Amino acid sequence: MTHQDKAQSSTDFGFEQVAWADKARRVRGVFDSVANRYDLMNDLMSLGTHRLWKRFTLACTNLKPGQRALDVAGGTGDLSLGMLRQVGPGGLVVLTDINAEMLRRGRDRLIDAGFAASACVVQANAECLPFRPAQFDCVTIGFGLRNVTDKPAALASMRSVLRPGGQLIVLEFSQLAVPALKPLYDAYSFKVLPKLGELVAGDAASYQYLAESIRKHPDQETLLAMMRDVGLENCSYQNLSGGVVAVHRGYVY
């Protein structure tokens, strides 16, 4: 799709169709609204399970001391913090996010944890990352890809900054592998989450969008094909919590 085609087209914002150029602004508004309660809501929504999903993701990085990692759409820095511990003082982790308020909270967290010397924070759009090719040994994006307007462009941009032997890891909500659980999952997503968002974050609409955006995100096999299409190799995925989330991995050789 050309730049002109994109400018004239629409895309999903949850179940709503919005102008292609407007989605990033709408997503930014969601995270501006929930930034001050983001980590608390993650714990409440998942009953703490998001910590296990991120721990599994970190176990997949294969990062060694002295290496470089990039955390795209990293928000408040959960994955960045884990990777900083993996690469040690001689390594580097770059935390990026398109949202300034989320990034500020992530930056403060990394500094407070004592990683100011080996962490870098950059406000950036996942679709056009401002880094030279072949800079990083590992790139992660955790719960951010579904919010990106042009997902193939983001995947291609993340692939381009990987060194030979490096890998991209995508942690994202996905599609249930057990269809019988769908009615229960839908009831929780569309009734409990918005109410919880209203009570804790004062924002039901943003958590309604969360539930809707999960349903619009490509399923496991579709995302796997998208990763292969941008030139990633040896691609695979693993469902966690019955497909509530999936971890996709692809490599550059």
Keywords, please?
seven-stranded mixed sheet, globular, two-stranded antiparallel ribbon, 253 residues, 9 strands, alpha/beta
Tell me about this structure:
The protein is an alpha/beta fold and 253 residues long. It has a single domain (20-177, 210-251), classed as Vaccinia Virus protein VP39 (Rossmann fold, 3-Layer(aba) Sandwich), CATH 3.40.50.150. It has ten helices and nine strands. The strands form two sheets. A seven-stranded mixed sheet has the order 5-4-3-6-7-9-8, with helices on both faces. Helix 4 packs parallel to helix 5 and helix 8 runs antiparallel to helix 9 (204-216). It is globular, with a radius of gyration of 17 Å. It starts with a helix and ends with a strand. 40% of the residues are buried. The model has no long low-confidence stretch (mean pLDDT 94).
Short description:
This protein is an alpha/beta fold. The protein has ten helices and nine strands.
> Which architecture name does CATH use?
3-Layer(aba) Sandwich
Number of domains: 1
- The radius of gyration is 17 Å
Averaged pLDDT: 94
**Given the helix and strand composition, which structural class is it?**
alpha/beta
Instruction: Give the tally of β-strands.
Output: 9
- Envelope shape: globular
> What is the ordering of alpha helices and beta strands?
HEEHHHEHEHEEHEHHHEE
CATH fold-type name: Rossmann fold
